[in-house]
Amino acid sequence: MMNIQELIQKAISDLYDQKVETSQIQLQKTKKEFKGHITLVVFPLLKISRKNPEQTAQEIGNHLTGKESFISGFNVIKGFLNLTIAPAYWIGLLNEINETPEYGTKKAGENAPLVMIEYSSPNTNKPLHLGHIRNNLLGYSLSEIMKANGYKVVKTNIVNDRGIHICKSMLAWQKWGNGETPESSGKKGDHLIGDYYVKFDKEYKKELSELQSTGLSQKEAEEKSVLMAEAREMLRQWEAGDLETIALWEMMNTWVYAGFDETYKALGVDFDKIYYESQTYTEGKREVERGLQKGIFYRKEDGSVWADLTVDGLDEKLLLRADGTSVYMTQDIGTAKLRFDDYPIDKMIYVVGNEQNYHFQVLSILLDKLGFEFGKGLVHFSYGMVELPEGKMKSREGTVVDADDLIEEMINTAKETSKELGKLDGCSEEETDKITRIIGSGALKYFILKVDPRKNMVFNPKESIDFNGNTGSFIQYTYARIQSVLRKSKEMTVSQQPMPGISSAEPDSEAPALQTQTILSEKEETLIQLLSDFPSIVKEAAENFSPAVIANYIYDLVKEYNQFYHDFSILREENEELKKFRLVLSQNVGKVIKTGFGLLGIDVPERM
User: Fold this and answer.
1) Reduced to 3 states, what is the DSSP secondary structure of residue 537?
2) CA gap 96, 90 in Å, rounded
3) What is the signed CA dihedral for 437, 441, 447, 448, rounded to 10 degrees?
4) Does the structure show a pLDDT above 60 at 515?
5) For 70, how many CA atoms within 13 A lie in the half-sphere containing its CB?
6) Which helix (H) or strand (E) covers residue 146, if one does?
7) What does the pLDDT look like over 200-230, one tens digit per residue?
8) Across residues 436-450, what is the average pLDDT?
């Protein structure tokens, strides 16, 4: 596209003796119903040509075909100039793609900008659930995409390990746990603690019901609640450093972290740096006190500290409660300061659901008011909620879809589906387990990541594992099919030496020029054109913070390849040069699938 833009700029200069801005040259892929590869929209150029659209397009087309050998023809449809690119160009382009092992990606240079990406952000009062899965997959994939665009990336997590919600689980375990541990119960630590969070909510609702039965209103019952008062007192004791409370907190959090680590490993995500709210909230409180002294914030009569944001078109925001305990905003202020102290961050991206849009709008304003230069530059990667066909999930009521259960269900479904279709016939039990884990995990990840992250989505496990359609399984199967073709080509003693000018390994500057008279089909040209789009797709995914751009591009590529595979012979092709070309084409489609899926955090199996 860039080459053609430059050529058109030169053509306009030659034809009309005028310079034209790159922004005025609108190029797009030619629609399938018309002949050609690249289409120029002529209308923005009419003021320069002073001619009608058809005449302008005809003149530019004639000039290009007369001057440039790789533009072999053109046609004009109203105000659109459809350019046909010569086969030799496509073969040369495939050669370049084939000689680039890390095709489509860039490595970070020494002075590359540093991007910190925060994702996951779990609470230690419950296990990870389906909503966390979307968050973790988006955050990890975005990190890989930014790396592929030449950025230095720090993947970070903030663990919400303190607060009233944590104390609810602690209090419930203290009251009704009877010393239960992950070892004695056989449960993962995060699941065990999550059970006590649910237990607290049930007992709290029971207490409120009993109080309301005496004639109290809902609000009066909440104020009279002994259970909630005990939870608040436990939080005050924790912040005061009470040794017994701290010991209980440390023990229960240790259980939870061990559980989280198992889930992260199953999801294939990791972090470079983990921050803990218990360590950052004190820094946040200091910043709030500093803001209070400078008159940025104010204290109410009850002792609580607030920020008045009405001048910013918002409302008043609580920063410290009357009892001196902090809120999420306090912690986020402290965490932001510590992160920028720790790293020379050029861009900070928070991967957090869209229900927190207001929170991050306020955080940016408060950091700016406190004098931090990075305040205005914070990016909230706001994504939509994920639900099940049955509707929303509720942690307190224990109706969430547990991440561990879902991952295991996906793997089991992959095994059952694969066996039914005979996909794993001949595989050993060990190989079957490995492949079905790749399929099940890939199905889950792809189903979530193919959706525009800004949209709410419904996750249906049954639809995600399908070896046809826009699914991870379909793409993985195509990759495995390509690897099978390449293996068979070796078994049949088909020469794996590349076509002249095409290298299957390291670039060979001494390779003779490719025979440009090789005749390509329209489908083969389309596939190479799709492969040539990959670098711009990776760039677009970073600019839009959208793994879905890559996911849906890979699906389009795979659809085209499967049509090619159905319509054309590869191993049985009698023309040796054409056979080698198709093997190299297949090999590079596989390479782009593997690279693209790697950016989504999805593995591909060598056989299925």
Assistant:
1) helix
2) 10
3) 170
4) no
5) 11
6) helix 130-148
7) 999 999 999 999 999 999 999 999 999 999 9
8) 94
Owner of token pair 């053109």: 74
Helix (H, G, I), strand (E, B) or coil at 297: coil
DSSP state of 468: S
What type of residue is 195? D
Question: Domains of the chain, with CATH numbers?
Answer: 2-85 (3.30.1360.70), 119-387 (3.40.50.620), 403-599 (1.10.730.10)
**What's the pLDDT tens digit per position in 78-136?**
889 999 988 888 998 999 999 999 999 999 999 999 999 999 999 999 999 999 999 99
Report residue 22 CA to chain centroid gap. Answer: 31
Strands 347-353 vs 316-320: parallel, antiparallel or unpaired: unpaired
Please report how many Cα atoms fall inside a 13 Å half-sphere around the Cα of residue 222, on the Cβ side. Answer: 4
Whether residue 579 contacts residue 565, with contact meaning beta carbons closer than 8 Å, is answered with: no
Contact 116, 535 (CB under 8 A): no
Comparing CA positions, the residue from 9, 45, 44, 29 lying closest to residue 84 is 29
In 372-519, DSSP assigns E strands to 379-383, 386-387, 457-458
Beta bridge partners of 386: 457
C-alpha dihedral sign at 425, 430, 433, 439: negative
Which string of DSSP letters, residue by residue, matches 504-516? SSS--TTPPPP-T
- The three state secondary structure string of 321-351 is CCCCCECHHHHHHHHHHHHHHHCCCCEEEEE
Strand 80-85 and strand 38-41: pairing?
antiparallel
**Cβ atoms < 10 Å from Cβ of 430:** 8
Query: Residues 480, 606: contact at Cβ < 8 Å?
Result: yes
Residues 144 and 449: their CA atoms lie apart, in Å, by 13
Q: The pTM is what?
A: 0.88
Residue 276's DSSP bridge partners are 159
**pLDDT of 502 over the 70 cut:** no
State the DSSP string of 260-295.
Answer: HHHHHHHHT---SEEEEHHHHHHHHHHHHHHHHHTT
CA distances from residue 275 to 121, 318, 331 in whole angstroms, order as listed: 9, 23, 11
Per-residue pLDDT band for 400 (boundaries 50, 70, 90) equals low
What does DSSP assign to residue 150?
T
Collect contacts of 360-369 with beta carbons under 8 A, ≥24 apart: 361/314, 362/307, 362/309, 362/314, 362/317, 362/329, 363/329, 363/332, 363/333, 363/336, 365/309, 365/312, 365/314, 366/291, 366/307, 366/317, 366/329, 366/333, 367/333, 367/336, 369/291, 369/296, 369/307
> What digits encode the pLDDT tens for the residues 131-153?
999 999 999 999 999 999 999 99
Distance CA(76)–CA(78), nearest Å, equals 6
Q: For residue 457, which phi and psi values (nearest 5 degrees)?
A: -145, 155
Nearest to 373 by CA among 347, 350, 398: 347
**Residue 73 near residue 84 (C-beta atoms within 8 A):** yes
CA–chain centroid gap for 264, Å, is 15
How many Å is the maximal CA-CA distance in the chain?
93
**Contact by Cβ (8 Å): 547, 141:** yes
Phi, psi of 420 (to 5 degrees): -60, -40
Strand order in the sheet with 273-276: 273-276, 152-159, 114-118, 347-353, 379-383
Q: What is the CB neighbour count within 10 angstroms for residue 55?
A: 14
Q: Please tell me the predicted confidence (pLDDT) of residue 390.
A: 64
The rounded Cα 247 to chain-centroid distance in angstroms is 38
Which of the residue ranges 294-303, 364-373, 394-403 would you say has the lowest mean pLDDT?
394-403
